[in-house]
Structures are given as C-alpha cells and as structure tokens.
Amino acid sequence: MTTLAGGTDTLTRDALTVLQPGFTGTTAPDWLLRRLGEGLASVGLFGRNIASPGQLAALTAQLRAERDDVLVAIDEEGGDVTRLEVRSGSSFPGNHALGAVDDVELTHQVAHELGRRLASCGVNLNWAPSADVNSDPRNPVIGVRSFGADTELAARHTAAYVTGLQSAGVAACTKHFPGHGDTAVDSHHALPRIDVSADVLAERELAPFRAAIAASTRAVMSAHILVPALDPDRPATLSRRILTGLLRGELGYEGLIVTDGMEMRAIAGTYGIERGSVLAIAAGADAICVGGGLADDATVLRLRDALVGAVRAGELPEERLAEAAGRVRALARWAGAAGSPAESNHGTEIGLHAARRALTVTAAPGLGSPDTFEPLTEPPYVAAFTPVANIAVGDETPWGVAAELIHLLPGTVTGSFSAGDGPEKKAGESAGRAALQAAGSRRIVAVVRDEHRHPWMASALDALLAARPDSIVVEMGVPQATPRGALHIATHGAARVCGRAAAEVITGGPGA
After folding, report:
1. Residues of the chain predicted below pLDDT 50
2. Residue 180 a catalytic site member
3. What is the pLDDT of residue 339?
4. Measured between alpha carbons, how far is 330 from 256 in angstroms, rounded to an integer?
5. Cβ(213)–Cβ(164) under 8 Å?
6. Distance CA 30, CA 34 (A)
7. Is 108 a catalytic residue?
C-alpha cells in the first residue's frame, strides 16, 4: 500500500473518502476535523446542525479550514423536508406544490433561489430533488415530496429542478433510484417491495431519472427498496444489476451514486451497516450516506475498517473502491469550480409566489363557491388534526395555518388533535367532538394532512362538518380525498409559505 503524508495509506484514505457521515452539534467536533485531515471528503448536515444562516456559514468555513474541497451535503428539499428552516418551516413550497402549478420555469427559479441560499452558507451538495412518481396514494414517505403521480410531469420538473439548483453552484442529488413512489412501506422502518414489471418500471419510474441524467445531475441517490423485476435478491442500494447494470449501463449515468441513509431499517435491520456499506460499494455506489441517526467517530471508524477489511479479504476489489473515491473527488472539483451564483432577478419572495399559485380552492356542493366566500374578519378556531410525521420530515418542523392566521387575525385560537390509542373511527369522532367543544362559537378552520391515508382524520371531519358545515378545511398533504367544507383549500404541501398562502385566502390578505 502507498503511504501518504500524515501516515494514512491509500486504501484507508479511499475508504474514508467514500463516507458521508453526519455529526451532532452546531460546530465541527474534533474527531470530524481529524478525519477530514486523514481523507474524509464529505460531511452531511441535518437540522440539528443548523441554528441560523450565519452559524451555518461559520460551520462550513470551519470544515473548509481543514479541507478546502470538502463536499458539504444537506437534505434540503424545501416544502415539508427542510433543514435550513427546520424550526420555522420552509420559505419554499415542495415538489408537489410545484407540480400542481406545472410551470417548469417557476420550478427552475425556486430551485435556483434555494440553491443560492445553500451556496451562501457554504453547502455544495443537496440530496434533492425527489424524482419519485407518487403512483401509490398510500405512500407514507414520499407523498408531497413528489412532483405528482404523472410520469411526464415528474420528469420535466425533475429536470427543471436539477438545472435550477446546479445553476446556483450546488450539485443536485436526484433520488430515490429506481423510484420509491409505488410503495406503501417507509424504508426508514422496513424494506419496501415494488412488484411491477420491468416494462412498467421503464415507462413510469425511470422516466424522471432519464430526464435528470439528461439535465446533467451530478449525483443520484439509491433507494432501499426491493424490485424483483430488476433484482429478486437484493435491494437497489446493494444491487449490482440495478446500480451498475441499469443506472450506469442502460441509462448511461457517469456521475456520483450516493446511498440513502445506511442506518435506515431497510438496510441496518437486514444486512447491518458495515456489511451493507461493503455490498453497496461493490454494487456500484460511490458514497455511503450515514448519520441521520448514527453520527459519531465510532461509526465512521467501523465503516472505514469494514471497507478496508473487505478489500484485504478479497471481497471488494480495491480498484472499485478507488473508482468510487475518484468520483467523490471529481464532484468536489466540480463544486469548487462552480463558484458563487450570480444574483437572481426573481428575489427571495419566489417561494411565497409559488405557494400562492399552487393553491386549489373549492367549496362543497350547496355551500356556495370560492367566488362568493366572505373572508374572515373575526379570529377563528384552528383545529389541526395531526398525523404522526414520517422520519424524513421529522416532527420538529412546525406546519399548519395557525401561526399565519394569528399574524393576520390576532386573537386566533388553535388546538391540535390526534388519533390517540383508540380504534380509528371512534378516535376520529372523539377528536372531531373535542374540536367542536374547544371552538365554541368561533368559525372553525380544520387543518388536515393526507386525509385519504388516515381514516380517523376523515371521521373527525365527518363529526365536525355534520355539526358545523360552515367550517373551512385546509388539506396540506396530497389532496386525494373529496374536497369538503364551506371552503376547501388544497395547499399541496405543509411548508410555512403554503400555510401563509392559505391564511391569505381565508382572511382576504395580501395575496388573496
């Protein structure tokens, strides 16, 4: 083995180079800086690492003082999945809202402005966009993170997002290959399975990835899903047939392949993160994402040693590991050459503008129409029927319309209701009755998120609307259920700006 300056041999350095670990805290820990000096080339940031734009810029400067070409990655989709604004909600609507508008130039502008914010804080790799076609409405993990259920719509907006983000000097990482939309299982908890033919996959799931590759996406993230039509034995992240045969061979992709988080149960609960990481690199992945839950030096050393041990045992070709490390360094060179993005001409209000355009406003039959709706002038009662958040979104990010209504109509009162532990129908009826009692004589604004996936939520609305048909319903998930209420507002996402746009309609505010 060749020994480099500082005593790190080439093999060990390459093993560190392919890792993308996270860490805890808002400053870089000593162990992370030490590993950067030994060959670690990427770092992943999460909401726990971010307190403000200034603090984030200082953190990334601290990392670059140790290694000036470090890749700083983040999971910033905008919309429901935000790390920059995890404590307030995003200033940008997510993919589903952009797909509802279906203006590719708008999608490009939103992605560019989001990229500018990331770049200004020193972030140069974004684990976005989600190119998944949300073909299963029961999907518990994609939903509004998808541009929609239409393949061609998802493809054209994926391409627009990639070009917009990368025009700001931030590498896009299109995910979750070969498509996580047709699942009813969250891979954070278990291994999903997609049982459709190779022809359906080629026509539906793969189209947005072809568009992303044509748009020169710099990275692609694999999905922890089993697709028997492509590989009956191993999930995509660990499948040479899928990563090397399909993505590299058939689709002609030459950029970086990143795994989804290896600590997710779909991999950690079946193969373990060490074995899974070795298999992923052998299958054709170039970078191992780990750190959403595991974020310490011990994890980095375990994975480093697993890769080195696999090479020395003949289980992982050394040239495959070297090739993977080379792709990481190539992306770092691209990011370093991208420079600072030019000033945009659409400004920081592009997110709110997009959220306003994404609204779909209807009314139940016999209860008037949106055109005859009289905006509220008295503070209402906001009843938020709150589901359990999926891990990708996280439960720490606020959502809803209450904060925005309080701003526009001071005195607005709010309450949150959930299914609790009872049977779904009874729990829903109980939640609906509790909301009615809490509201008193105030006009009710009922806020739901994916009503179609939560029978208890539908029962809650049944009970509430039977007693108060004049209630306003705001759906902040995928608007699959039949619209109802005196006014029904579908926001196509739960970003802060989506809540703002809905509140403006309810009160006749600035953008109404």
Report:
1. 1-7
2. no
3. 65
4. 9
5. no
6. 6
7. no
C-alpha count within 13 angstroms, C-beta hemisphere, residue 123: 28
Q: Which residues pair with 289 in a beta bridge?
A: 20
Q: What are the pLDDT digits (tens) for 315-365?
A: 999 999 999 999 999 999 999 887 666 565 666 699 999 999 999 999 876
| Prior bond of 176 cis (ω within 30°) | yes
Contacts of 188 (CB under 8 A, 6+ apart): 141, 261, 264, 265, 266, 390, 391, 392
Helix spans in 179-317 (H): 198-200, 206-214, 240, 265-268, 273-283, 297-312
- Token pair for 23: 């860490």
Report pTM.
Answer: 0.94
Please tell me which residue in 108, 112, 176, 188 is annotated as part of the active site.
Answer: 188
Tokens, residue 191: 């291994």
| Rounded Cα distance, 179 and 227, in Å | 10
Please give the C-alpha separations between residue 339 and each of 24, 38, 64, 336, in angstroms, as whole numbers: 28, 26, 15, 6
3-state secondary structure of 93: coil
User: Half-sphere exposure of residue 423, counting CA atoms within 13 Å on the CB side?
Assistant: 2
Q: Which of 14, 182, 260, 450 is catalytic?
A: 260
Rg (CA), the chain: 23
CA atoms lying within 13 Å on the CB side of residue 79: 30
